[in-house]
Design brief:
This protein is α/β, with parallel strands linked by helices. It is built from 14 helices and 15 strands. Helix 8 runs antiparallel to helix 9 (228-235).
Length: 356
């Protein structure tokens, strides 16, 4: 296995030699490596610093090259870090990377499920970053992460969650997606909804602290609060919706999906930009954190009304002047969130078109 040395954040690691380009580069390599997840890993470092890992036990449960777990050990400056993977080649590479960074980490050659079963409720933070769906691993992870612990998980099966493969989404997530303009937010909320339902089986409430969509994947951080009452309260925030040509209403077709907040304001206020993490994304999440579910898309409404699209800033300003909340959203560069009724939104589009 040919290796190349690279830097992420404050850490240097060896990874398998790979072709340059977007997306995962590890499916055909002896050890999996995905350069497209660098910002994902940068955000995880920022999140864990904001959460305060002092004295906590952290697990990188599908460590591969060890890049995420070794960064946690090297850049968080506190907490005990464990890495595990089923691949023997991965174990060798993890040890090499731990040595060149002079970090003290525990390394195990076993699956995340086996490791958590052998170390029940030891870990305050568990990172789950599979290739594809996290669903097969969630029962063990959500049951055996420590009380009030946090799980960070990725899902790269966006085409399933966003409605391209409806039957597969029903099989995996027990939810019906819809491939419309709001598909990325719907997909994220379907993922969270599944996590909430799975955690509730063990009398745990999965409370989102940070949830976002980025290009080819979804990422969710949930705190696991113990108690049947809390689990029941979380389940009350699941819902189903019907989507029309440009808006939505409570219904039966899409979902169940999470209707609560995607972010913790306290966590966002403590987070700072790390590495490739864009400061603009953090500021956008802060603004979105108080907004209701779903968004309107400028181009979709314009097409529906057969009118030229107003500038996005104009729409947001008009909504605010009419005493409504409105912000841009990270889900789409042509979309906005608001608490205004759809009739108000349509009126702004019509007023813009008729203005001299």
């Amino acid at each position: 296995m040919k290796l190349v040395k690279l830097s992420e954040g404050e850490t240097e690691v060896f990874v398998p030699e790979h072709k340059k380009g977007p997306g995962p580069r590890g499916t055909d390599l002896p050890v999996f490596y995905n350069p497209a997840m660098e910002m994902n890993r940068d955000i995880s470092i920022s999140f864990l610093k904001a959460w305060d890992v002092n004295g906590k036990n952290l697990l990188d449960g599908m460590a591969a090259s060890g890049i995420r777990g070794i960064r946690m050990a090297n850049e968080l400056y506190s907490g005990e870090v464990t890495l595990t993977d089923v691949s023997h080649e991965s174990i060798k590479l993890m040890k090499k990377n731990a040595a060149i960074n002079d970090v003290d980490v525990d390394i195990f050659n076993e699956s995340i499920e086996s490791h958590l079963l052998n170390n029940r409720c030891k870990y305050d933070y568990v990172d789950l970053d599979p290739f594809g769906t996290p669903v097969p691993f969630l029962p063990t992870v959500l049951r055996y992460t420590a009380r009030n612990g946090v799980v960070g998980l990725s899902a790269t099966d966006t085409s399933v969650l966003c409605g391209t493969y409806t039957k597969k989404c029903l099989r995996l997530y027990s939810a019906r997606p819809e491939n419309n303009w709001c598909r990325h937010e719907n997909g994220l909320r379907i993922l969270i909804g599944h996590v909430v339902r799975e955690a509730a089986r063990y009398d745990r409430a999965a409370v989102p602290l940070l949830s976002y969509y980025d290009g080819h994947h979804f990422r969710v951080y949930v705190k696991l609060e113990a108690g049947a009452k809390k689990a029941d309260d979380a389940l009350q925030k699941l819902g189903r919706y019907d989507f029309g040509e440009y808006d939505w209403e409570e219904g039966k077709k899409t979902g169940p999906l999470w209707t609560g907040q995607l972010f913790s304001k306290k966590i966002l206020e403590r987070m700072t930009s790390v590495g490739t993490m864009e400061e603009g994304s953090l500021e956008m999440w802060k603004k979105e954190s108080s907004m209701p579910p779903f968004f309107y898309d400028n181009s979709i409404i314009s097409k529906y009304l057969k009118l030229p699209p107003p500038p996005l800033d104009y729409i947001i300003t008009e909504l605010r002047e009419r005493n409504n909340k409105s912000v841009k959203t990270h889900f789409s560069p042509t979309a906005f969130k608001t608490d205004a009724a759809s009739s108000v939104v349509l009126d702004i589009f019509k007023s813009y078109s008729s203005a001299p």
